[in-house]
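Regression check, 3-methyl-2-oxobutanoic acid case 272:
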Amino acid sequence: MSATTGEIKRITTHVIQAMKNRGEKIAMLTAYDFSMARILDEAGIDILLVGDSASNVMAGHETTLPITLDQMIYHAQSVVRAVHRAMVVVDMPFGSYQSNSEIALKSAIQIMKESGAHAVKLEGGAEVEKSIKRILMAGIPVMGHLGLTPQSIYKFGTYTVRAKKDAEAQKLRDDAKLLQDLGCFALVLEKIPATLAKEVSESLAIPTIGIGAGPDADGQVLVTHDMLGITKEFKPRFLRRYLELFDAIGEATQRYITDVKNREFPNDSEQY
Ligand code: KIV
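Current build output:
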């Protein structure tokens, strides 16, 4: 994991930790396919998350629950093939780690062996302690995920901000400490109050990566398709759109259709 490829230094768990230690923010985005992963890696992203948000973004499901282990591995393989520098973290999908630690270990090993990724991410704290322990004992780096955990959407009932009340905030603090003590190398904090994210980030030695968790997490993550404006309707307060690709791609497609219909594509130089 500490290998260098020519001039390019691979991002590893140690590099991520060193970034927190020197106060450099960590930039993470999701990727599910070769072409996008290549662009994001060449642009210098630190971590690419093969998120189970692929279930929504790539497959059009309403939740992250339906995506399978084999489908996650397929996406992860495509991303790994594209990447020279970024660390690739793969979400363990719903059902691949919750039932018992043996299944969790088997799933994590399958992800690592078949995809060539560098780490796994899974949702939850004390509830999944045994699974995390067993995966870590096999030498697989684990990123935790607390706050809004979309695989539990039917328990929460809504995608609103988590840990606003004292009891839930205290459980999050306890879980964050537990994940660090178990040996997780980093922690996603999703949709929690900025003050709580700041407190947790300052209290932990390991890096936190926020999404909808304010500016004081040690890094930030967004779903790439949201950040680029490919998904149109999803507009939570925390999202900053850097492009409006839904509209741009739609306009390009309309120009192409017009050119084809008007016999303006292909022209003399676009043929053999
Ligand atoms: O699946 C995903 O995209 C995620 C991020 C939102 C952190 O877990």
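Comparison notes: Residues 30, 49, 51-53, 91, 188, 190, 211, 221, 223 surround 3-methyl-2-oxobutanoic acid (CB under 6 Å). The beta strands are 4-5, 8-9, 26-30, 47-50, 87-91, 119-121, 142-147, 186-190, 208-211, 219-222. No diff flagged against the previous build.
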